[in-house]
From TrEMBL:
One of its GO terms (cellular component) is respiratory chain complex IV. Coiled coil: none annotated. InterPro entries: Cyt_c_oxidase_su8, Cyt_c_oxidase_su8_sf. Keywords: Membrane, Mitochondrion, Mitochondrion inner membrane, Transit peptide, Transmembrane, Transmembrane helix, Ubl conjugation. Pfam families: COX8. This is Cytochrome c oxidase subunit 8. GO terms for biological process: mitochondrial electron transport, cytochrome c to oxygen. Component of the cytochrome c oxidase (complex IV, CIV), a multisubunit enzyme composed of 14 subunits. The complex is composed of a catalytic core of 3 subunits MT-CO1, MT-CO2 and MT-CO3, encoded in the mitochondrial DNA, and 11 supernumerary subunits COX4I1 (or COX4I2), COX5A, COX5B, COX6A2 (or COX6A1), COX6B1 (or COX6B2), COX6C, COX7A1 (or COX7A2), COX7B, COX7C, COX8B and NDUFA4, which are encoded in the nuclear genome. Component of the cytochrome c oxidase (complex IV, CIV), a multisubunit enzyme composed of 14 subunits. The complex is composed of a catalytic core of 3 subunits MT-CO1, MT-CO2 and MT-CO3, encoded in the mitochondrial DNA, and 11 supernumerary subunits COX4I, COX5A, COX5B, COX6A, COX6B, COX6C, COX7A, COX7B, COX7C, COX8 and NDUFA4, which are encoded in the nuclear genome. Belongs to the cytochrome c oxidase VIII family. It is a single-pass membrane protein. The keyword Oxidoreductase does not apply.
Amino acid sequence: MSVLMPQLLRGLTGLTQRLPVQRAQIHSKPPREQLGTMDVAVGLTSCFLCFLLPSGWVLSHLESYKKWE
């Protein structure tokens, strides 16, 4: 490590302490109406179909992807 490294790191950390940090003002309220069983079922089914089904298909056909054609 060079002699200038501690001075460089001290300069970089000092720079980050002076920068203003913007924070998001996110406030949440309770839902106006409760979610029903059908709403939850549709949401979970769509998440399964969109994310887990394609990745499962790729993983199940991984051996065919490894073959050279």
